[in-house]
Design goal:
189 residues, 33% helix, disordered C terminus
Length: 189
């Protein structure tokens, strides 16, 4: 069976790691507004994941905002990181060597971890397509020449190929969960 246009052909590993998506709104109109504002079309595998699972917090430490998220709002997160990046590039360019949207060719911030690490989507350059950059809280940068879903599989696998999620710092909630559902469940008790 062929996946619908825009949905990664093999998303089975992510579903195996996280369970069936609770949401299936790939064709979410929120993406159109955000992409128009950014002046670029984000990669389909990333949009599929966020629309199917987000907004969410994976393993209590991997925060994934959504274009219409209340607490995990992607446009607000992008604006915040963009402003912070402009300041950092002005004062400490060696520690923040990459431009961030809205700068031309800028990275798009899409995930933050509890430890302060950030995951960015790197727009296509030459013929490489969208790839992933990780800005570690240590000011080290790693470029992963793969799409977002392939990157996520390596982060979530056991053992993780990319040690971005700390699994031993907290008692983990069931993943994935929607932050609003978690808050509603806790406020009822």
């Amino acid at each position: 069976m062929t996946a619908p246009k825009g949905v990664p052909a093999d998303r089975s590993r992510v579903v195996e790691l996280l369970g069936e998506p609770r949401f299936n709104s790939f064709f979410d109109p929120a993406w159109e507004g955000l992409e128009s504002e950014l002046g670029l079309a984000l990669p389909d595998d990333y949009k599929w994941f966020v629309s199917a699972f987000g907004p969410c917090v994976l393993h209590g430490t991997f925060y994934v905002p959504h274009p219409q998220g209340v607490s995990l709002n992607l446009p607000d997160y992008i604006a915040y990181v963009s402003e912070e990046a402009r300041d950092a590039r002005e004062h400490l360019p060696e520690e923040f060597p990459n431009p961030v949207v809205p700068e031309a060719g800028g990275l798009v911030p899409v995930v933050e971890t509890f430890q302060g690490d950030r995951v960015f989507l790197r727009p296509p350059a030459d013929d490489d397509g969208w790839t992933v950059m990780v800005g570690w809280d240590t000011m080290r940068w790693d470029w992963h020449r793969m799409g977002f879903v392939a990157f996520l599989e390596r982060v979530l696998g056991e053992p993780p190929e990319i040690p971005l999620i700390s699994r031993d710092s907290f008692e983990w909630p069931e993943v994935p969960y929607r932050l609003s559902e978690y808050r509603n469940a806790n406020s009822a008790s």
